[in-house]
Amino acid sequence: MLTNAAYLKDMVIRATDGDIGTVDQFYFDDKAWVIRYLTVETGGWLGDRQVLISPISIVHADWQSWRLEVALTKLQVKNSPGIDTHQPVSRQHEAAYLDYYGYSYYWIGPNMWGPVLYPSGLPIPAATIKEAPSGRSRRESKDSHLRSNEAVTGYHIEAQDGEIGHVEGFVMDDETWAIRYLEVATKNWWPGKKVLVSPSWIKRVSWTDSKVYIGLSREVVKKAPAFVESAPITREYEDQLHRYYGQPPYWLHEAEQKSSFSLTV
């Protein structure tokens, strides 16, 4: 299901033995455009400490009650590696976090979540979660590719012939946790109109200049199907969007991946 990622803000994270806290922001991978971690305010029971929660841990998302249930205990979360949200999350820190819970590295493997297609394919029963052996091969790059949604919100969108708006939000898939679209506000040019742009249509991102460059003209974006936050994002709307932009739907490619994956397991 597609949903506005803004709904993640302040959602309650519930462990198997009680509430952990509420979601503050999320980190996404700027290569695959997939949400890798949620940062959670623990509300005092761990002092002022924030913790990371991976979608791998989530067993149920209740969007009506604003609650995410995780297959973790409060003690496991308490003893997990800390996070300083004022500093970039390094690949070394990621590896330590994933080692602690015994999760596979998402950057090793052919799929969106490394060896599997969905984060739900990776959870390990709580009884077997332990610190991984120090000899575990990481084979990771030195740098992480994580960006926070709060940092990227507000980035300027540059069309082929000039600025077109700014990033106002993200639309996510709650099965894969992929960011399917950037929500672009064009109010400086066409008051009240918002449009969606897929990360796959982005030519490049200048992280130093806070700009996203897309391979579309301003006129094309101007006439694109409007995005209405109060309306559900249906497959019909997505079909219309992809046909308008002349882009292949992401779900066809992922269906092929899923079929290929099923044949190999």
Instruction: Give the helix proportion (percent range).
Output: 10-25%
What count of structural domains?
A: 2
Note the run of SSEs as H and E: EEEEEEEEHHEHEEEEEEHHH
Assembly state: single chain
Q: Give the N-terminus to C-terminus distance in angstroms.
A: 25 Å
- What's the story with the biggest beta sheet? 7 strands, mixed
Q: What is the number of helical segments per DSSP (H or I, 4+ residues)?
A: 6
Structural class by sheet pairing and helices = alpha+beta
Radius of gyration: 19 Å
Summarize this structure briefly.
By secondary structure, the protein is an alpha+beta fold. The chain is built from six helices and 15 strands. It has helices at 74-78, 91-101, 149-152, 218-222, 235-245, 250-264, and strands spanning 2-4, 12-15, 18-29, 34-41, 45-48, 50-53, 58-62, 67-70, 146-148, 156-159, 162-173, 179-185, 194-197, 202-206, 211-214.
Describe the structure.
This protein is an alpha+beta fold. The protein folds into two domains: 146 residues, Roll (SH3 type barrels), CATH 2.30.30.240; 101 residues, Photosynthetic Reaction Center, subunit H, domain 2 (Photosynthetic Reaction Center, Chain H, domain 2, Alpha-Beta Complex), CATH 3.90.50.10. 19% of the residues lie in helices and 31% in strands.
